[in-house]
Amino acid sequence: MSSEPTPGLPPAAPAATSARAAAPLSASARLGITVLGCIALAALVASLLLWQRLWSVQEQLARQSADSGTQAIEARSMARQAQDLARDTAAKQAVADARLNEVTLQRRQLEELIQSLSRSRDENLVVDIESGLRLAQQQAQLTGNLEPLVAALRSAQQRIERSAQPRLAPVQQAIERDLDRLGRASVTDTAGLLGRIDDLIRQVDDLPLLNAVAHASAMRRMAAAQGADDAPATPASTAGMPRWQAVLTSAWEVVRDEMRGLLRITRIDRPDAMLLAPEQAFFLRENLKLTLLNARLGVLARQLDSARSDLAAASTSLNRYFDPASRRTQAAATTLQQAQAHLKTAQLPGIDDSLAALATAAAGR
Q: Which key words tag this protein in UniProt (predicted)?
């Protein structure tokens, strides 16, 4: 390559001019590059700022999400507490309703009590006296003693006198009549009556039956014959007789007595009593004891009608199946009659006049 100018070409001066022109292009490029660098730097700074803002937004969103989760947990906890509170409130409401019902019932009872207490003094006195007299009457019927009834009547009389109410005068007069009637009444000897019944129960086993009379007479004859054989012969029966004749005479007398005992004519008014078997006799005595025990229980329970019927049944059985000629049977029949007579007078007098007067006074309020 030669530095010499080529013919036909322009001179080398234009090359210097282009070199001088290239210098300004390089400065503008630098400026553009600088501008581009500034723009890139500004974009980078903006990107950094945008990234920082996005990061802060993400942190804020994460924080809000965490807060939202915490609030959701707290909301569920508060909802559960609200449900528990609602259940407690419902239970308390039920308890309050129950207590309200109890208070209402107590208030109603209190109102009824106030109404009952608001009655007049005379009405309360009449009711109290009537209940006391009925209680004393029941006690007297159970114990057979008139003292509780007399004491209740006297106490009622004193209370009526202290009240000084003219309309209770008929009650006081009725109480005086009942006191007079009780004063004339005879006191029942329950212990003596029970003692008689116990004696009858103990005597049942020793009472002879009606069908045992023939057997008893035969036993008496055998005992008499045995005593005659054991005793020496009397001179009147064996006087002037040989020994063998005396023995034959004694044997004949024994045979004669036995033959007489084989046939016995007796009037039988009660065939069932005469044909009673030994085992039936045992049950007959036991039934008689049970009848007397029932009468004893009736006296203790103040069931006098039942006791009278039991004693009447015992008397019928005693007269039908037992020997009326025996002293033991007669004594038992006498004791039984005394017990029946005692029961006829054992009825306690009542206080019907006083109770009727109290009912009239209570109805007149």
A: Membrane, Methyltransferase, Transferase, Transmembrane, Transmembrane helix
